[in-house]
Amino acid sequence: MPIEHYRQRRKRINFESVSTSAIISRKRVGLMSGAGVLFFALLLTALPELRAEKIDHRNFAIDTCYPTPNEIQLAEQRARKYWAKHAARFGNNPFYLAVETSKIFPGDVHGLSPKLNHSETTASNRRRSYSYLELKGVMIFDIRTGHFVGNTGFISVDTPPLGGLARFDDYIARYIGFGNWP
User: Fold this and answer.
1) Which of 69, 87, 100, 145 is the most buried (most CB within 10 A)?
2) With the C-alpha atoms ordered 73, 76, 77, 78, is the resulting torsion angle positive or negative?
3) Per-domain residue ranges for the chain?
4) Do 155 and 107 form a contact (C-beta atoms < 8 A)?
5) φ/ψ (deg, to 5) at 142
6) Residue 57 region, left (φ>0) first, then alpha (ψ -120 to 50), else beta?
7) Is 65 in contact with 137 (CB distance < 8 Å)?
């Protein structure tokens, strides 16, 4: 009898140890799936931040410019055409597009040297002769109204990459250049 009793007790111990390990592994799986759910939830909340576009907060405007009515009309047509094609791609944020309206000659800008010295974006052009400068007239187009925000624009030496978000004076705008890129 004692041997039989010993075997039964041994079977119970093995059964209990299997049961205990199964319970422990279930708890581990439960903790892991809980941690997985938490990680997934954090990932979902972080995705908009990961996809968020970077805004170049340097001011690309060094001065104001006054494009001709013809330049304004042509640039506004290009901006409308561009926005009709790309609105779904970018959405409504920001509300403004920075549209290149004209080329400006350095000799046409009064007091260019101090403006370049105080500019936040023209470090690469400070040692060059002014004849190498490519000044651009940029106007701000409001996508909500379908018109420019005013009749004046900004002079910019450096420009953000096409499609990039940047600051032009008080406006955060998507730079589209002449608006003729795909």
Assistant:
1) 100
2) positive
3) 1-52, 55-177
4) no
5) -90, 115
6) alpha
7) yes
Q: What are phi and psi of 137, to 5 degrees?
A: -90, 125
3-state secondary structure of 152: coil
pTM of the model: 0.69
What is the rounded distance in angstroms from the CA atom of residue 131 to the CA atom of residue 31? 68
CB atoms within 10 A of CB 71: 17
Residue 16: CB partners within 8 Å, gap ≥ 6? Answer: none
**Within 10 A of 22 (CB to CB), how many other CB atoms are there?**
10
7-30 pLDDT, tens digit each: 565 555 555 555 555 555 555 555
